[in-house]
Amino acid sequence: MVANETGMPRAMHPAAHHALRELSAAGRHLTEHWSVLAGRLAGPESVVLRAGADSAAGMLTELYPMGAARDVPLEPAADALGAALGGVRGRLADRFLERNQALRAAVLDVQHVTTLLAYVEALVRNDGDDELADACAGWQERLWAHENAARGLAIAAAEDPDQAIAPADGSPVGRAAHRVASVAGAAGEWVDRQTGSAT
Questions:
Q1: Residue by residue, what is the 3-state secondary structure of 116-166?
Q2: b vs e for 117-154, b when ≥16 Cβ sit within 10 Å of the residue's Cβ?
Q3: Comparing C-alpha atoms, which of 109, 104, 92, 88 is closest to residue 181?
Q4: What's the pLDDT at 184?
Q5: Are 29 and 86 in contact (CB under 8 A)?
Q6: Which pLDDT score is estimated for 75?
Q7: How many CB atoms are closer than 10 A to CB 166?
Q8: Based on the structure, what is the number of domains in the chain?
Q9: pLDDT by residue (tens digit) across 104-152?
Q10: What is the domain range of residue 185?
Q11: 68-73 — which CB contacts under 8 Å span 24+ positions?
Q12: What CATH number should be reported for the domain holding residue 136?
């Protein structure tokens, strides 16, 4: 932690303060969403998502005391926001998606966090807070491995197109939601064809 001339901890720049709170919310969102999705998808997808969720949870465990030491509260509001958003996506939005769509959306979750980590690292490194900067670099490296693994699985879904377009949620509710999304997509395509033929 960087100290000022009096030896007291120096307040973080508002940009770093805001980004650290966003990191807490985004990390919790990643943890919750990937945990729910891991329970829906079987095989290697489930393993990769569960491991990524565990790494994100570990990052948060280390992040909270570092935020507190810098007078940046991360709980309960920022943490609860991320948990709520991750839960909504996992329990509601993903029900309408195909497996490949859910996997690609999961990659965006972790990309948001790794990009945010790089941004926070640069902010606090420029301000002389090497302890937090080094922590961000370490978290980013760990999550990159999960990001690459999830992206690889999303691309590999193309090897089995039938499975790629299967519902991400195989429960009766998930299959029903997937049918609704399919009907909406077909209707949208019909409108596009009619509009296109009219021009």
A1: HHHHHHHHHHHCCCHHHHHHHHHHHHHHHHHHHHHHHHHHHHHHCHHHHCC
A2: bebbbebbeebebeebbebbbebbebbeebbebbbebb
A3: 92
A4: 41
A5: yes
A6: 74
A7: 16
A8: 1
A9: 999 999 999 999 999 999 999 999 999 999 999 999 999 999 999 999 9
A10: 14-198
A11: 69/1, 69/9, 70/1, 70/9, 70/12, 70/20, 70/129, 70/132, 71/9, 71/11, 71/12, 72/12, 72/17, 72/20, 72/21, 73/21
A12: 1.20.1260.10
Closest CA to 52 of 183, 145, 122: 145
Low-confidence ranges of the chain (pLDDT < 50): 4-8, 82, 86-88, 90, 171-193
Give 18's contacts (C-beta < 8 A, 6+ positions apart): none
Q: Say what the pTM is.
A: 0.77
Task: Give the pLDDT of residue 79.
Answer: 55
Residue with tokens 């691309």: 155
Q: What is the pLDDT of residue 180?
A: 45
Query: Is 5 within a domain?
Result: no
